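pasting for ref
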Amino acid sequence: MAKLTKKMAIAHQKVDSNKLYDLEEAMKLVKEVNVTKFDSSIDLHIRLGVDPRKADQAIRGTVTLPHGTGKSKRVLVLCTPDKVDEALEAGADYAGLDEYIKKVGDGWTDIDVIIAMPSVMAQVGKIGRILGPRGLMPNPKSGTVTMDIKGAVGDVKGGKIAFRVDKFGIIHSPVGRVSFSADKLRENAHELLSTILKMKPSSAKAYT
């Protein structure tokens, strides 16, 4: 077992491993046990107890966190030339089509979210093998395949995040930063959990 640093040992002493913390207590505690010098991300890891191999249990969706994630997301919009100005004016970091299809094909993935028009998805499919494993492939269910470019960019920049269950039945999602107040972290976490609970498939006995 790796030896704990002095700061980590002090942090461990503040956590009662036999206690079940409620959301408010947990978000206060997570700020107290932080040992990093930078503004760390606070993530939730939620075990659902579903079988993601079954189509109706492959939980995925989006949620707009009331206070955002604390991270500015880099957005690429893949669109026809007539929509480029609209995308950039809405706040997209990059917008275009052919040049970015080639750029991504050559290995560039320095982006967090890709939004695409439905009419260009055939071309986007050419780089699907690169985007898919990185969770960057646009999808109608996450609102990233749409004609409403302005609205989609605004949502992402305003704190909208996508989540999906992994092959082990767990959802991993950020809910803020250590610099956030405990109340903001709690409200963000509550919004995420409430959204996931509403998506519980009828074929699943219960989330665990």
